[in-house]
Design the sequence.
């Protein structure tokens, strides 16, 4: 307390004592013994009130010694085990952790990492991924605004995340301790394989492979891709000390529907320390997109033949020309093309109200627009008997599906009756119409999606001239045929809503994050947050069954199935309240990315040490590293003075005591008849 505060407290004592004496002795008519008690209570009450006003503060000064942090980060991934360095890593960590001199100078922080970064609890070297990037970022966040060194016990091989060399804070030194044998050995490796997850049946899909060689002599190897016992592709590749990489691009045929498993191999007569990285399994899901299209027309027109040829340019499409009075059932068709519909089409339209097959409407000078208005409400037509030629104008903001401008503005005009066209509902325009150079603000080609049903409208006949013009310009029908194919593909996709929607991949690599998500919708197609979803998982080979609950996240239910062994799995997701269910399957490919390495990545560890002004050490140099850390004058213990100010008495309790003293005084006076 300050001198002024002490004086005020003494003054309060005098005032409280003086007032008590004045009231109970100086003015008192009788000198009762009880007056002594009453005077004391009055003294305590007045002194308490004055203490509240003075509010004396006690100041304490504590000195705290803050050691600089030393982060010891240990690689806990599987590659350390495969490089036979797990024992060395544990010994190095314990030697640093238990060093008395280091503990006196530093506050040692122990961490481990594989795919994630965490406090070091127990090293098992079973991590399926190595992400040094997340370790670097978390270290910066933990020791923000601090100057600290980092000892990184690792082989430097990273399998996920951004480049860790640039993730560490350049102002804080990093001292890597290299794990694993740095002696360069001969090694052939499939470094990376790029392939699309999906391909269409009877098409070809590309495969791109990056090969890598470590060695000094010239060798030749065979690269091949096989499926089962069949070799699909094979070629020779040469390597040398200067030519240590190769890129191979090839096309494979998609001849079977479903998930197809392939194996890429790099084979040579040379003896290798690690042959696991000479092979890589991959899978592609082959999709059958076969589509049956009915072109329904009651007239003959060149448009029909041109449309049929364009549709069937894709081997997965079949177009059948039928008369509206002769068509038998719609269940065999994926898309209906109504070419210039009239009242003769009424039977087909009535049948499609229950079949709900997506439709492509093409109008022209023979179309009955009054009938068409009755059958659909996406576009409303008010047409005259006057014919008009309409040019096309491409709308670049169209985003329902990817499509290029194939020169629509240069195509011949389409013919349609003149009139007004009103767009209703969720309709998107790809081509708008112009009469000569005047924009009509009306669509020429438009698409609509309503409650899961899709439709398209081409408002004009003579589109056969477009196909011919495209051939003249490009010397091929391909661009026009692809344009028509895109329309058919959009219409062939059934986007009807389901109550239970489950998202998953057809295959995963071992070590990948395996997450299955699901959404359950009520009858109003609103996401149901009270649903109870479970998944039953069966290993197709062992028949072992596991059951899990799906946990609710943001607008989806999720389950994490990490850690499953390689193999085929069948699963069923079920909503217990409604019994809605979904069944599917996926395959886990046998691929362990942590087995791909034969040496530590010494180059990158040296680059990391150089960029942070640290130094690379080897396990037998651990004592030199300790001496370097102890001798570094940049890391010193900081003496921090903490001044703490606190009230002498808690005002709440003091207020309670004051009220208590006044109450006791009142009762004593009342009991003795002094009131």
Sequence:
């Amino acid at each position: 307390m300050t001198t002024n505060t002490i004086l005020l407290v003494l003054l309060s004592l005098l005032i409280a004592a003086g007032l008590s004496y004045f009231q109970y002795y100086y003015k008192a008519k009788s000198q009762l013994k009880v007056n002594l008690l009453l005077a004391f209570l009055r003294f305590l009450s007045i002194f308490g009130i004055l203490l509240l006003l003075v509010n004396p503060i006690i100041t304490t000064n504590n000195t705290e010694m803050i050691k600089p942090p030393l982060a010891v980060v240990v690689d806990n991934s599987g590659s350390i085990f495969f490089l036979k360095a797990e024992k060395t890593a544990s010994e190095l960590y314990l030697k640093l952790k238990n060093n008395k001199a280091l503990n006196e100078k530093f506050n040692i922080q122990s961490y481990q990492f594989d795919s994630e970064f965490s406090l070091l609890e127990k090293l098992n070297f079973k991590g399926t991924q190595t992400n040094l990037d997340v370790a670097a970022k978390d270290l910066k966040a933990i020791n923000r605004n601090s100057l600290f060194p980092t000892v990184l016990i690792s082989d430097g091989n990273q399998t996920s995340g951004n480049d860790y060399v640039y993730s560490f804070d350049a102002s804080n030194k990093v001292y890597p301790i290299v794990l694993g044998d740095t002696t360069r050995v001969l090694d052939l490796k499939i470094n990376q394989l790029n392939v699309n997850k999906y391909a269409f049946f009877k098409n070809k899909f590309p495969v791109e492979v990056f090969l890598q060689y470590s060695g000094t002599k010239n060798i030749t190897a065979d690269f091949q891709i096989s499926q089962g016992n069949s070799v699909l592709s094979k070629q020779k590749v040469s390597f040398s000390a200067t030519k240590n990489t190769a890129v191979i691009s090839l096309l494979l045929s998609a001849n079977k529907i479903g998930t197809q498993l392939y194996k890429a191999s790099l084979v040579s007569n040379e003896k290798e320390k690690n042959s696991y990285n000479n092979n890589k399994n991959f899978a592609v899901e082959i999709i059958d997109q076969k589509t049956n299209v009915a072109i329904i027309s009651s007239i003959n027109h060149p448009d029909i033949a041109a449309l049929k040829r364009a549709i069937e340019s894709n081997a997965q499409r079949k177009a059948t020309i039928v008369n509206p009075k002769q068509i038998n059932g719609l269940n065999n068709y994926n898309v209906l093309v109504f070419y210039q519909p009239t009242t003769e089409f009424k039977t087909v339209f009535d049948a499609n109200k229950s079949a709900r097959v997506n439709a492509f409407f093409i109008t022209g000078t023979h179309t009955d627009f009054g009938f068409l208005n009755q059958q659909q409400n996406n576009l409303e037509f008010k047409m005259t008997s006057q014919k008009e030629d309409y040019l096309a104008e491409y709308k670049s903001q169209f985003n329902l599906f990817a499509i290029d401008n194939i020169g629509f503005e240069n195509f011949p005009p389409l013919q349609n009756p003149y009139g007004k066209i009103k767009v209703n509902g969720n309709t998107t325009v790809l081509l708008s119409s112009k009469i000569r150079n005047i924009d009509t603000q009306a669509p020429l080609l438009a698409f609509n999606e309503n409650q899961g049903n899709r439709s398209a409208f081409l408002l004009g006949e003579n589109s056969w001239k477009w196909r011919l013009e495209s051939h003249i310009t490009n010397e091929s029908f391909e661009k026009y045929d692809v344009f028509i194919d895109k329309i058919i593909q959009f219409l062939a996709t059934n986007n009807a809503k389901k109550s239970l929607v489950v998202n998953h991949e057809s295959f995963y690599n071992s070590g990948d994050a395996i997450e299955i998500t699901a959404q359950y919708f009520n009858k109003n197609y609103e996401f149901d947050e009270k649903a109870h979803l479970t998944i039953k998982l069966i290993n197709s080979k062992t028949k072992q069954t596991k059951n899990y609950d799906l946990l609710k996240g943001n607008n989806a239910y999720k389950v994490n199935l990490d850690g499953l062994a390689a193999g085929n799995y069948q699963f069923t997701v079920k909503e217990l309240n409604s019994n809605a269910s979904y069944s599917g399957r996926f395959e886990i490919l046998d691929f362990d990315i942590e087995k791909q390495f034969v040496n530590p990545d010494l180059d990158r560890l040296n680059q990391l040490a150089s960029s942070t002004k640290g130094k690379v050490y080897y396990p037998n140099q651990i004592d030199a590293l300790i001496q370097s850390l102890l001798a570094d004058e940049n890391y010193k213990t900081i003496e921090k003075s903490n001044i703490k100010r606190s009230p002498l008495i808690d005002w709440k309790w003091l207020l309670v005591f004051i009220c208590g003293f006044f109450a006791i005084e009142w009762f004593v006076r009342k009991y003795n008849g002094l009131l």
